[in-house]
């Protein structure tokens, strides 16, 4: 989270009027670049031709919608037969939840605070993740609200105030982060005409062959991953949701933060015990911007507690403090997206 203090770049994520109670959701026009013809010569190597914007995709409830970016795997240079085989067999997906300020490129370009960080727009992040996870479908989920064009709010996944500070809750069979994500992916795959789409509901027979899922949260986006951890005990016991959870291979927390005064990292021992037992590979990548800020010392303490508790329960989370010998900066906060 770009957060909790005033910085030279002009962000003030906590000291802004806490009494604000409403905001309209932002909607952006579709850029022409995202509608490049599928027949464009593959030899151009232009990744924009593999990027598709899906607007107002419904989740578990029709009124709960999120915009999505989908970056398809790069099949350039493969034979026609090989490409078809890849298309039919590859069902591996990465889902990314962004932080504050980040938005569609054309939205950021119109905002003074966003324009200076265009290299971290949702489109550019999709390309970065495409290099990090080749041969996988990359999904970037845009927060349903961007208050003041900078505060991302994931209220479709977790109850949140206008600034995106979450109120976590346990699993519910008909709502919550897992239910919304599953339905969102299902409807997104259908709209994108992907082969073997995930079904929005159902048991093991509703999960397509070879389907796997990697979840990545950056900064404010980590609140979605945290909510999923709180839902794990109930979700693992639910026969309809459990098969979906078993297809989640990895969860990456990248420099998590939000404007609340606690619960930046999950510290509840019972739910962390469930996470440790889930079989999911856990990764925590941080920078001094979040975990070494003396004005928000609880963030570093909670991160340490998160790691220590998981290790006590037998998990082996991978962890790294990036740029530890450099001064804390927003630029390095963003750069963890490239370095993890």
From TrEMBL:
GO terms for cellular component: mitochondrion. InterPro entries: C2orf69_mit. Residues 24-44 are annotated as: Disordered. The keyword Ribonucleoprotein does not apply. Keywords: Signal. Pfam families: C2orf69 (PF10561). Residues 30-43 have a biased composition (Basic and acidic residues). Residues 1-19 form the signal peptide. This is Mitochondrial protein C2orf69 homolog. It comes from Parambassis ranga. The lineage of its organism: Eukaryota, Metazoa, Chordata, Craniata, Vertebrata.
């Amino acid at each position: 989270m770009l957060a909790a203090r005033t910085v030279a770049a002009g962000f003030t994520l906590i000291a802004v009027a806490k009494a604000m109670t409403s905001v309209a959701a932002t909607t952006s026009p579709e850029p022409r670049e995202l509608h490049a013809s599928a027949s464009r010569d593959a030899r151009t190597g232009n990744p924009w031709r593999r990027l598709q914007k899906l607007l107002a995709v419904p989740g578990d409830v029709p009124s709960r919608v999120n915009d999505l970016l989908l970056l398809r795997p790069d099949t350039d240079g493969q034979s026609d037969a090989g490409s078809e085989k890849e298309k039919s067999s590859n069902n591996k997906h990465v889902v990314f939840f962004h932080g504050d300020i980040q938005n569609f490129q054309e939205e950021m370009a119109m905002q003074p605070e966003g324009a200076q960080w265009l290299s971290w727009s949702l489109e550019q992040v999709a390309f970065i993740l495409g290099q990090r996870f080749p041969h996988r479908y990359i999904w970037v989920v845009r927060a349903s609200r961007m208050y003041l064009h900078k505060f991302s709010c994931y209220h479709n996944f977790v109850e949140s105030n206008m600034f995106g500070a979450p109120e976590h809750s346990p699993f519910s069979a008909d709502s919550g982060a897992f239910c919304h994500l599953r339905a969102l992916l299902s409807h997104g795959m259908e709209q994108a005409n992907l082969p073997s789409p995930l079904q929005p509901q159902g048991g093991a027979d509703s999960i397509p062959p070879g389907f796997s899922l990697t979840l990545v949260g950056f900064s404010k986006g980590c609140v979605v991953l945290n909510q999923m951890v709180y839902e794990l005990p109930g979700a693992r016991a639910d026969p309809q949701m459990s098969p979906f959870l078993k297809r989640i291979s990895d969860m990456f927390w990248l420099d998590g933060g939000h404007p609340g005064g606690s619960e930046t990292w999950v510290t509840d021992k019972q739910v962390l015990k469930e996470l440790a037992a889930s079989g999911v590979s856990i990764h925590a990548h941080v920078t001094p911007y979040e975990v070494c800020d003396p004005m928000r010392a609880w963030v570093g303490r909670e991160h340490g507690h998160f790691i220590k508790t998981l290790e006590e329960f037998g998990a082996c989370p991978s962890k790294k403090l990036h740029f530890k010998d450099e001064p804390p900066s927003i630029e390095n906060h963003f750069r963890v997206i490239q370095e993890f």
